[in-house]
Amino acid sequence: MPCDMLVFGGTGDLALHKLLPALYYLHREHRLPGAMRIIGISRKLLPRENYIKLAERHCRAQIEKKDFDDSTWLSFSERLDYLSMDASQSADFSRLAKILKCNAKHGCIYYLATAPNLFASIASNLARNNLTGTNTRIVIEKPIGHSLESALAINATIGAAFSEEQVFRIDHYLGKETVQNLMALRFANALFEPVWRAAHIDHVQISVNETLGVENRGEYYDHAGAIRDMLQNHLLQLLCLVAMEAPVRFDADAVRNEKVKILQALRPISGIDVKDKTVRGQYAAGNVGGHNAPAYYLEKDVDNDSDTETFVAIEVEIDNWRWAGVPFYLRTGKRLAKKTSEIIIQFKPVPHSLFSDSQANHLLIRLQPEERISLELMAKTPGKGMHLEPVKLDINLAQAFQDNRRWEAYERLLLDVIENDSTLFMRRDEVEAAWQWVDPILKGWEQHYQRPRPYAAGSNGPEQAHSLLEKHNRAWHE
Ligand code: BG6
User: Fold this and answer.
1) By alpha-carbon position, which residue is closest to atom 6 of ligand 1?
2) Which of 70, 114, 116, 280 has the most CB atoms around it within 10 Å of its CB?
């Protein structure tokens, strides 16, 4: 069905750096509906031509040179339009209603690339102006709330205006190729299933390490911290994909039913347990990749006394039959030594070792910087004697599929919204179950005043994050 996409927050970073470049690629590959208009919305007074110039400048900077050409840009820009309105003012929505063609044959997608405090007023103003018919969809970005209570409130307001099938809650990690590959690895290969369980797995590590600091997002980040910004959503979603049972079908409800069961099985961490199971950190000054970086509390828009965590590590247990007794170690942080996102499945050692230098196998699934799946096995070194060393069965996914262009997460996700496929989006109960588990940790930190431990920018995080594993004779995979 033809549809238009309205981007609230149309002059913001997300729209200019991610959404418009992704839509350009989709247009270039003839995947957008023929008559689709893309309407940027913000309070700024801008003539359409100036919005197009602004969009062009950012798209040129984001899109690879070889993929940007003037004639494609010209045809893409014909889709672009701009509307200046105040998304908190009900009167402005009746102006919007006049320019929209929303009807039974023409759909509308509302993308809320705005601050979350506008979600509720946009959703209810759209409803008041009869702009939420069954041919419309709404896309919202994280953070969906700041706590369970605020997430419930946002979901309730959105839910009063739109039915659940119309709501697309984006977690851009689910649009990443290797994240989807996790499902292919687990459910399209018979090989791993028999060993994908407590009897054979010692523990799992999920690390999302960044070298960037808070950049220009101090104001938002200082109220969020690493647990709300990354762990409540991206890392828990990765955990769900590693731990869930095979869905009966590859469709939105079947996949999300299995993910939500994992979130509900996470063992609560509350009260004094936070001291044992969680580590908070905050970066101090240091050197990242040859550049001096300031301490977090000196960053722009950050409180000088801030005790927001820029690093978090947690030992998580899943109370179900498959995973009982297998810890999942999650960690994420800013201003660390290297940018890597990876999952390690650490298998148990062989039951009876014949060789003194044998080590347990592990499977590495790297999401970034390169997409790689690598299984470490033990092999005999050539020559006399039985000396073993680990060797890798290594797949570089970019090389394996050299002829296919790698899609950015937002391309895949925007196309799914257009095609009305919500498999890779978070359902209401998933978001709420994730908050239900995170909330007691936040409360425990407050009750027991767990201040973040300092770590030097450019390091591997605070010492205590290492002790979290060392006390069980384990170590982070660096
Ligand atoms: C965002 C967070 O959701 O994900 C950012 O708000 C973080 O703080 C980013 O930097 C990381 O995404 P990626 O795709 O670069 O790993």
Assistant:
1) 229
2) 280
